[in-house]
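dumping this here so i dont lose it
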């Protein structure tokens, strides 16, 4: 019987010698959010427990009344948890807000979860960042520290999709323009099945479609998309803001929609045309006047319109060579008269009379300038003489007609008066001699 007790005690001592000491074991590592991207603030949770160990026996079993008492752990052992970068890349791009945490005493078999707050740098590279978690054994006063357990793990930092849009477009009033948009994925993530849409409103009208599928857009990849659009002629010349929607699927399979804006400059330039309204007959050495009509053929008003008649080898300017018109509304016109003399050595036929135009648009201080010609017919001396004679004959004929018209009117009035007088006299005689008494 006594031998059995000794055997039981021996076996118990052997078993207790296997479990009396503790060993820290790492249970799990997790972080929130689970998908980490540059710029994120992340909480890392590290769970570990004080596991029975077989290293050595610190405390002999206690037997009271032939019964083995439970082995108590060493109450003088305390623990600290430390999180630190385990690579140069982690050291550069990860900030650990509180690297060391006091855990205190852990009973044998007790578990503990320590949270660490870290910050991923905004400009962090897309990579797997290695961190080292260590549990240190110490005493209540922290007089010594001994690494009980170290564990290295990685946090993968995924890239985000970041769209950068470039668009520099100018479209004229009343025309169709090709709106070009450059889309660049400057982030580290991949954008799949990208659809680009425009939110167009008056004065813009899509010529074909207002959204287009451009496919996948990887990191640092750029694609160009074009939309033909029409701008109404009644639009105000200025810069318009157009909303752009980008729909895509990210690396985690999430459907995401983001909005951006682009600017479109609508421009309208006054278009001033000129035409010869009338002119005197011209021949070498002959002076005369020309009437020139200036009309704004554009969709917008012209401001500060100034006209300058330019010198030429074919004529000399006898009047003022510069005229200020002022504002010329769209579809409005103004006629100005200039006096010139055809030079003696000028060739007969059509010669150009050159005008230089200066004007500004309605909403801009930019001055436009252009040179336009009107054609004047220079007759030979014989043709000019015939033209003058024909003009003189025509004038004489017109003068005769004008003189004859009042003569005819006066003759008509005289005849009418005579007719009335004869009618009255005849009526009187009839009543006087032929009426019954």
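and the seq i came up w/
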């Amino acid at each position: 019987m006594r031998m059995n007790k000794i055997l039981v005690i021996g076996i118990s001592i052997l078993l207790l010698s296997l479990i009396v000491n503790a060993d820290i074991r790492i249970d799990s590592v997790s972080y929130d959010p689970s998908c980490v991207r540059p710029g994120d603030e992340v909480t890392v949770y590290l769970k570990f427990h004080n596991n029975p160990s077989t290293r050595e026996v610190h405390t002999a079993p206690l037997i009271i009344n032939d019964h083995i008492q439970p082995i108590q752990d060493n109450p003088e052992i305390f623990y600290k948890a430390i999180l630190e970068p385990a690579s140069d890349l982690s050291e550069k791009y990860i900030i650990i807000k509180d690297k060391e945490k006091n855990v205190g005493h852990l009973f044998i078999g007790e578990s503990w979860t320590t949270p660490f707050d870290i910050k991923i740098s905004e400009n962090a590279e897309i990579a797997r960042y290695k961190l080292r978690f260590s549990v240190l054994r110490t005493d209540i006063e922290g007089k010594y520290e001994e690494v009980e357990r170290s564990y290295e793990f990685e946090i993968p930092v995924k890239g985000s999709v970041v769209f950068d849009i470039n668009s520099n477009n100018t479209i004229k009033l009343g025309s169709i323009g090709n709106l070009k948009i450059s889309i660049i994925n400057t982030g580290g993530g991949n954008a799949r099945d990208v659809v680009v849409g425009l939110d167009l409103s008056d004065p813009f009208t899509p010529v074909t479609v207002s959204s287009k599928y451009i496919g996948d857009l990887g990191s640092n990849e750029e694609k160009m998309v074009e939309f033909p659009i029409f701008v109404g002629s009644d639009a105000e010349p200025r810069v318009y803001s157009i909303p752009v929607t980008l729909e895509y699927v990210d690396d985690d399979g999430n459907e995401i929609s983001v909005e951006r804006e682009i600017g479109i400059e609508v421009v309208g330039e006054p278009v001033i045309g000129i035409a010869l309204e009338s002119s005197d007959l011209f021949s070498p050495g002959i002076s005369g006047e020309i009437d020139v009509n200036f009309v704004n053929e554009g969709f917008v008003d012209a401001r500060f319109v100034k006209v300058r008649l330019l010198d030429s080898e074919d004529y000399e300017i006898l009047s003022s060579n510069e005229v200020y018109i002022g504002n010329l509304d769209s579809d409005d016109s103004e006629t100005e008269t200039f006096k010139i003399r055809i030079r003696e050595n000028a060739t007969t036929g059509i010669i150009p009379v050159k005008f230089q135009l200066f004007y500004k648009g309605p909403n801009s201080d930019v001055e436009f300038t252009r040179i336009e010609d009107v054609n004047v017919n220079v007759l030979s001396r014989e043709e000019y003489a015939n033209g003058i004679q024909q003009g003189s004959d025509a004038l004489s004929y017109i003068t005769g007609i004008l003189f004859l018209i009042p003569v005819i009117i006066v003759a008509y009035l005289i005849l009418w008066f005579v007719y009335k007088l004869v009618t009255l006299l005849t009526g009187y005689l009839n009543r006087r001699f032929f009426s019954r008494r």
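DSSP finds three helices and 27 strands in the chain.
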